[in-house]
Amino acid sequence: MTLPLRLTCFSVILVLQLVVNQTPAKAGKKETTPFLKQIQLTCLIVIAALGGASLFWLYYHLVGINGSNEVVMRPFLVGLMSFLISGVILMFTKKKIGTTLQSCLVILPLILNLALVPVDQIDRSSDFWYTYLLSLLFFLVVSMFSAGILERLKIAPIPRLLQGVPIQFTVLMLIFLSLSFFKGVFFGELF
């Protein structure tokens, strides 16, 4: 997974954390914690992204892309399929999540799939799924790690200057460094 793909995953996680932490609690309703909201929304985003990529792969191999503009059509179809799957998931979960989180459920899988789907490897199925699933697993693991760490940071005394986005960005970069060292151990390259 290249550095731009990792940075895309981190920016999606930052947006997810900001939206989850800024969502107000409804009066009189028992509300879930931001940690559980982030875990639930991350799982829904991963399901939507995986469904969109699967639908794109099936469409490409069953129907194909007619015409000479395949370079433009591949990302368009990835986005369209991600949007369709996100819409279907949104119909099933509309009553359970707020409007701000609903917009995240539509937009974030689209962004994630446009960045992570290896459209150049579409003809080699094993390489396509290996690369895509590892990237999606990276997103899921980092999002869950950061949700747990940020939940623990709520009780820690953090200087006012570092509260909010700076501490979230610092947490993500520390997770990035720790996972990069695992990559060095298993695959022989550090970053």
Give the SSE map.
Elements: H1 3-22, H2 34-62, H3 70-93, H4 99-116, H5 125-153, H6 165-187
Keywords: Membrane, Transmembrane, Transmembrane helix
Protein name: Tripartite tricarboxylate transporter TctB family protein
Transmembrane segments: 38-60, 72-93, 99-117, 129-149, 161-182
Count of DSSP E strands? 0
Proportion of beta-strand residues: under 5%
Fraction of residues in helices? over 70%
Overall spatial form = globular
End-to-end distance: 9 Å
Helix/strand-derived class?
mainly alpha
How many helices? The count is 6
The SSE order reads HHHHHH
Radius of gyration: 18 Å
How many domains make up the coordinates?
1
Average pLDDT metric: 81
Labels describing this entry:
191 residues; mainly alpha
What would your notes on this structure say?
Keywords: Membrane, Transmembrane, Transmembrane helix. The protein has helices spanning 3-22, 34-62, 70-93, 99-116, 125-153, 165-187. By secondary structure, the chain is mostly helical. The protein has one domain. Helix 1 packs across helix 2 (34-62). The radius of gyration is 18 Å and the shape is globular.
Give a short summary of the structure.
The protein has 191 residues and is an all-alpha fold.
